């Protein structure tokens, strides 16, 4: 009898896990593939090439009601290059395939590409292909980025060991806070049915920018070089802290305890969560799209990094593997299974 398991019950990670089991073709030149932020291929004795692809669908990953096409183009580039920065690599070229519905005009497409080009200049990456096609549904964009890294400098999710510090750059939850504000204003507009409706975005500049036009953490690569050491593992906060930390822990074969009071959350983000009567910790743990970097390092190396780069906080420690991630709230410890 054929079974039917809804994806929302199993999760996308189950699909990836099953896919990897059937991935029996292994080439000598491929160093890493499924499970990492980007694939790694050995191109010469000293360097690795990286490649990552992401798909962005209207109505799933963005809403044109409140996402200007210019900032959408910028955000898509930020999203894909962050995969390479999360492996301590340098992005080199960008390729795009775009499904355009009839309601997207030439002028609108030009605005989208203005954002693409602005981001390419920001990250010093060359757009080498842009292939348009028709779409009967919404706007769809597939973006692929390639880059390079010296083999001795590449960082992956695997590598963390027991007793190390868990660190994260910047702040978490602000991107989803911005999204919540935009969704609230969209709902208000729909209810009023007023063509002249003006959204109330005053005082929300920081979180709106974090949602619509985020930046990749490009400076961390130079900071590691200046501090003359590399962390034991590195990834990004793209799906949410809990999801991305679990992925790192599983890859490294360890467990961890993090402290929720230590999670960096801005006052702006806290204010919005209060307005929405929502738990701000959930913004940080599950919100995603922060594009911050999450890494582990021995405790002795923390002061060395702090001297050259101080925009990070320690949020926990790695522990011996027991199949769980522990979240210490200060009042209780919440246990989450890694698998």
Describe the structure.
The chain is of the alpha+beta class and 339 residues long. The protein folds into two domains: 7-153, 60s Ribosomal Protein L30, Chain: A; 165-337, Phosphoribosyl-aminoimidazole Synthetase, Chain A, domain 2, CATH 3.90.650. It is 35% helix and 26% strand. The protein contains eleven helices and 13 strands. The strands form two sheets. The chain has a seven-stranded mixed beta sheet with strand order 8-10-7-11-9-12-13, with helices on one face. A six-stranded mixed beta sheet has the order 1-2-3-6-4-5, with helices on one face. β12 (324-328) and β13 form a beta hairpin. The mean pLDDT is 91.
Fill in the keyword field for this structure.
alpha+beta; 11 helices; six-stranded mixed beta sheet; globular; Phosphoribosyl-aminoimidazole Synthetase, Chain A, domain 2
Short description:
This protein is an alpha+beta fold and 339 residues long.
Which H/E pattern describes the elements?
Answer: HHEEEHEHEEEHHHEHEHHEHEEE
User: How much beta, percentage-wise?
Assistant: 25-35%
Quick one: how many beta strands? 13
CATH superfamily of the largest domain: PurM-like C-terminal domain
| Gap from first CA to last CA | 27 Å
Low-pLDDT runs? none
Strand count, sense and barrel status of the largest sheet are: 7 strands, mixed
CATH architecture of the largest domain: Alpha-Beta Complex
Average pLDDT rating? 91
- Look up the CATH topology of the largest domain: Phosphoribosyl-aminoimidazole Synthetase, Chain A, domain 2
Residues in helices, as a percent range: 25-40%
Strand order across the biggest sheet?
Answer: 8-10-7-11-9-12-13
The helix-and-strand class reads alpha+beta
Work out the count of structural domains: 2
Radius of gyration: 21 Å
Number of helices: 11
3D shape: globular
CATH class of the largest domain: Alpha Beta
């Amino acid at each position: 009898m054929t079974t039917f398991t809804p994806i929302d019950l199993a999760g996308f990670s189950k699909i990836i896990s099953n896919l990897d089991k059937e991935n029996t073709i292994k080439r000598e030149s491929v160093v890493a593939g499924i499970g990492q932020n980007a694939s790694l291929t050995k191109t010469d004795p000293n360097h690795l090439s990286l490649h990552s692809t992401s798909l962005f669908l209207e109505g799933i990953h963005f809403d044109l009601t409140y996402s200007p096409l210019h900032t959408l183009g910028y955000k898509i580039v930020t999203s894909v290059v962050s995969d390479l920065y999360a492996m301590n690599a340098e992005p080199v070229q960008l390729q795009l395939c775009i499904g355009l519905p009839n309601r997207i005009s030439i002028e609108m497409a030009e605005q989208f590409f203005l954002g693409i080009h602005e981001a390419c200049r920001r990250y010093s990456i060359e757009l080498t292909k842009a292939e348009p096609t028709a779409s009967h549904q919404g706007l769809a964009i597939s973006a692929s980025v390639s880059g390079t890294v010296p083999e001795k400098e590449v960082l992956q999710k695997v590598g963390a060991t027991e007793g190390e510090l868990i660190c994260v750059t910047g702040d978490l939850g602000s991107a989803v806070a911005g999204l919540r504000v935009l969704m609230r204003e969209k709902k208000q507009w729909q209810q009023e049915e007023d063509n002249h409706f003006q959204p109330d975005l005053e005082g929300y500049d920081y979180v709106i920018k974090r949602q619509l036009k985020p930046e990749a953490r490009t400076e961390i690569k130079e900071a590691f070089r200046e501090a003359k050491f590399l962390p034991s593992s590195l990834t990004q906060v793209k799906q949410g802290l809990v999801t991305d930390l679990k992925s790192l822990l599983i890859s490294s074969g360890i467990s961890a305890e993090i402290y929720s009071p230590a999670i960096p959350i801005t006052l702006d983000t806290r204010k919005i969560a209060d307005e929405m009567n929502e738990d701000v910790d959930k913004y940080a743990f599950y919100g995603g799209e922060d594009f911050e970097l999450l890494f582990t390092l021995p405790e002795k190396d923390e002061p060395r990094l702090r001297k050259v780069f101080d925009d990070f906080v320690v949020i926990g420690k790695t522990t011996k593997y027991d199949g769980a991630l522990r979240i210490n709230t200060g009042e209780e410890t919440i246990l989450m299974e890694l698998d």
